[in-house]
Amino acid sequence: MKGIDLTTRFEQFAPRSIAVEHDPIGIQIGDLNRDVHRVMTTLDVRPEVVDEAVANNVDFIFAHHPVMFRPAKNLDLTNPQNAMYAKIIQNNITVYAAHTNLDDAEGGMNDWLAAAIGINDVEGLVDLGSAEHPFAMGRIGNLSQPTTVAAFAERCKDIFNIHGLRLVSNHPDQSIQRIAILGGDGGKFYPTALAKGADVYITGDVYYHTGHDMLSAGINVIDPGHNIEKICIPHLASLFRKWADENQWAITVLESKVNTDPYTFI
């Protein structure tokens, strides 16, 4: 099979049209017309991930976060980012990224996160699109049983396999049941979560002053970090294996094992 076969099928699942405007999704490096034999799924494309791909003879990296958020100003290979680009090219690896289109897709990133935290009656959080073609960023739903803010925050540490998180709450002992979640940097959408009745809003990268605004608004917020989106790695791999069986693609699908979280809790 060729890279274009995989990306064409993927874009039926998560159309480019539902990505946020100017999000640099799609082909990042390489050629989608090359033959593909070994695909690796990853959250981020970092030098260690590229080393992992080379060691495993991977010829296609499928990432959630675009490797080229900003254009390179030069190709000075003393710059680690440029050196990584060069290594990708030298090893004939194609890199493709699905970012906000994967976030918003039905059955995509935010549905995977919603399933992980165990909410029911799930619906979209931030409604986008049109009446003819609706889609949403984030998800909101209800726990089967009420719990407290503090207890649910502890549960999130186990669910996402993290050693720490940030809790924004005036009342950690408050009973809660309705939960909203938005993977990545979603702090600015807390008013929508509040308007839709969320007792708790889970998102990453909450800014200091936004945290103050959240406290004033009376919503409880759990910030487990951006890296919880690594949940995409096994889910994407599972999708690709399913499509490979359906289409008789002769590919091997690997899951990156590299921890790309830049933060260490001490």
Automatic annotation (TrEMBL):
This is GTP cyclohydrolase 1 type 2 homolog. Gene3D superfamilies: NIF3 (NGG1p interacting factor 3)-like. The keyword Acetylation does not apply. Keywords: Metal-binding. Homohexamer. Belongs to the GTP cyclohydrolase I type 2/NIF3 family. Signal peptide: none annotated. SUPFAM superfamilies: NIF3 (NGG1p interacting factor 3)-like (SSF102705).
